[in-house]
Amino acid sequence: MVNRLKIYLANLTYDTLLLGTDGFPLNIGCIASYSKKKFEDKLDFTLFKYIDELDRSIHDSPPDILGMSNYLWNYNISLEFFRMMKEINPQTLLVWGGPNFPLDFPSQKKFMDDHPEFDVYVPVRGEIGFTNIIQKMLDAGESFNKEKFLSEPIPDCISRNIDGKIQYAFANEQIKKLDEIPSPYTTGLMDKFFDGRLNPLIQTSRGCPFKCTFCADGTDMVNQVNKFSQDYIKDELLYIAKHVPKTVHSLYIADLNFGMLPGDLETCQVIKGIKQNYNYPQQILASTGKNKKEQIIDAIKLLEGAMSLTMSVQSMDQVVLQNIKRDNISVEHMMALAPTIKETGLLTRAEVIVGLPGETYQTVLETIRKLVRAEMDDITCHSCELFYGAEMSTPEERKKWNFQTKFRIVPRDFGVLSNGKKVCEYEEIVVGSNTLTLEESIDLRLLSFVLWMNTKGVVFDPVLKFLREQNIDVFELHYQMVKNRDNASKSIGNLFTKFKQTSEDELFDSPAEILSFIQNDTEYKKLLNEEIGINVVQSYHGYVLNYMMSEWTNYLLETSRHLLESSSDCNNEILKQFDEISKFTLGCSFNPLGKDRMLKNPEYVFTYDIESWIKSVSDKPLTSFKFSHTQKVVFKFSDLQFKAVQDTLNRYPDNMSGRGLALKSISMHNLWRKPFRN
Predict the structure, then answer these.
(1) Which end of the chain has the least Cβ crowding within 10 Å, N or C?
(2) Distance between CA 675 and CA 462 in Å, rounded?
């Protein structure tokens, strides 16, 4: 080793088929910028996002330090690179860091014993621990010897000496004045990632005040919240806007509670100004705060539809909320704000986790029913995951709730390295407990797919609003589409059958079974052919929108009509109104992703001004929006809509999984046709 250290930092994504994670590697950028500030010209940093680039670099020019991020999506690939690096240069110091690390001491020791591939672990925040490693290596200078270096503990790190003994020197020291970390954007460290494949990622605050047991950010170690200054944030956003390729329209915000903290309103004002000047960002993906929803509403109103309001309720059952230590978040207050949210025109997202401690089939249904009644625009049901760093995954919690778990390949996270080794990532999900059976879990999976299809966007809003106007419980629409699937058209029936089979086939009994499975060339081809290893709900969403949107829309309309006809208040006039709603919905949803979507624009004749009715925040019924005379309406995309959608589609493969992933980065306002009167 020479006095000028060569350091490789990697937060890897797989890209065998398409990107597994498409955000900038902000975490390693912050570590590099903080280290460069402290040690000036004594360091040579290279940052990596792509596997092939790192694979070539460690063979062509091995570093003094190889630092890898440890998240769910790059756990195994990091271990494999550590193994490769040991063979190439045993003196390279191997450092791992990130939240995917056990909480309790016995599990931490087992983790270290089970993973001899690396030398040092930096838990939680990485900047201070990593600079302590650098300082010790610089002090050693030309006399650096790995065995001697590891013989003593390193402050804010967990290491093992040459005999394998675990050495703890972790004091959880954190940077409170975040501006001490130079921006990896304005210092140029992120420039190489403006490649048209990745979406810029920023962070305006660190820490979370909540203690949710299912989350790695629910621990005392990250409970304190600190913020970057407004000048820091503004400079970063402006730099990004000036450098982002014209084909990239999304911005990710890594905050855990965006909109809830002081200064977030001002950040949204800055984003609004930048959007006006640079036409970026068109879409913002962030986790909004769990409390102070009025403040959050005021903040994201400024973003004019680029960002939705997330209601991360996870469950509406008070016993379950207490079980996961989420009772400090006012669910009732969030739901009471629903009318105000509707009046402001904001899109709302609600997230539910299926399989939480104490959750039953009926409590999940009741949670979803309440969210539907609160008129959430987008309801997403997630499988309950167990991962290192969350209290719920500790041995005590697993035993307490009698969790039955399965393992599945993380979507798109697999590949082959230069040494021929096939690697993939896996996640552990709860499929049963002392209150929920596997069969019930699969049934709820089907409902989650229907909810995703029916609430992911605004296209079915006219149907849902009309059903509510007729006092129909909209939850029954989603529920009956699952229960009556055997009586649907052949294409819809086959869709549900394939979805259920795919959901069952993706489950394995152990990580070892998965890792052995993919080494077989025949089975690996199943990954390449996307028979397994996909986000099932997301991919089937892409499939429906690309190939059978008309069939899905008709099934939804048929189910809705049946609910209306079953109502005691139904009459011919109501059914005539629904016929117009149906035409409007079919027009808006027609051929949303086809390459030929600009060639044919459906036209219908209307008696009612459905567009004005759907935008109205009053309680006036559809009958109050009657045209003075019938109007012909054509449904089409504007050129700007087409470009925004096509730019995003072009970044992903033209297949089921690619379409599903692309839809994450497409604004729902751009996805659907708009009505134009002739």
Answers:
(1) C
(2) 13
Geometric angle at alpha carbon 94, from 92 and 97, rounded to 5°: 155
Q: Which amino acid is at 88?
A: I
Beta-carbon contacts of 590 under 8 Å, excluding residues fewer than 6 positions away, are: 549, 550, 600, 602, 635, 673
- Picking from 369, 276, 271, the residue whose alpha carbon sits closest to that of residue 316 is 369
Length of the chain: 678
Dmax over CA atoms of the chain, in Å, equals 90
Q: How far apart are CA 553 and CA 371, in angstroms?
A: 22
3-state secondary structure of 134: helix
Question: What backbone torsions phi and psi does residue 292 show, to the nearest 5 degrees?
Answer: 55, 50
Q: Is the peptide bond between 116 and the residue preceding it cis, with omega within 30 degrees of 0?
A: no
Phi, psi of 37, rounded to the nearest 5 degrees: -65, -40
> How do beta strands 422-432 and 385-386 pair?
antiparallel
Tokens representing 231 are 């000048």
Q: How far apart are CA 522 and CA 544, in angstroms?
A: 28
Contact indicator for 358, 323 with CB cutoff of 8 Å: yes
Sheet order of strands, 348-354 included: 309-314, 348-354, 378-383
Instruction: Return all residues near 587 (Cβ < 8 A) that are at least 6 apart.
Output: 602, 603, 604, 633, 635, 673, 675
What span, in angstroms and rounded, lies between the C-alpha atoms of 361 and 367?
10
Cα separation values, 585 from 8, 368, 478, 555, 663, Å: 52, 24, 17, 12, 19
Cβ-Cβ contacts under 8 Å for 668 (sequence gap 6 or more): 347, 456, 457, 458
Q: What is the pTM of this model?
A: 0.84
Between CA 646 and CA 152 the distance in angstroms is 56
141/31 Cα distance (integer angstroms): 21
3-state DSSP percent of the chain in helix, strand and coil, to 5: 45, 20, 35
Give every CB contact of residue 280 below 8 A, 6+ residues apart in sequence: 240, 241, 244, 248, 249, 251, 274
Measured over the CA atoms of residue 117, residue 119, residue 124 and residue 128, the dihedral's sign is negative
What is the distance between the alpha carbons of residues 152 and 167, in angstroms, rounded to a whole number? 8
* Chain-centre distance for alpha carbon 385: 13
**C-alpha separations of 356 from 164, 317, 631 in Å:** 37, 11, 51
d(CA 91, CA 527): 36
Residue 275's pLDDT band, with cuts at 50, 70 and 90, is very high
Degrees, nearest 5: CA angle 439-538-661: 155
Residue with tokens 């804010």: 156
At 512, the pLDDT band (50, 70, 90 cuts) reads very high
pLDDT for residue 20 is more than 80: yes
Name the residue type at position 392.
M
Map residue 254 onto helix, strand or coil. strand
Residue 71: its pLDDT value, please? 92
Q: How many C-beta neighbours within 10 Å does residue 195 have?
A: 12
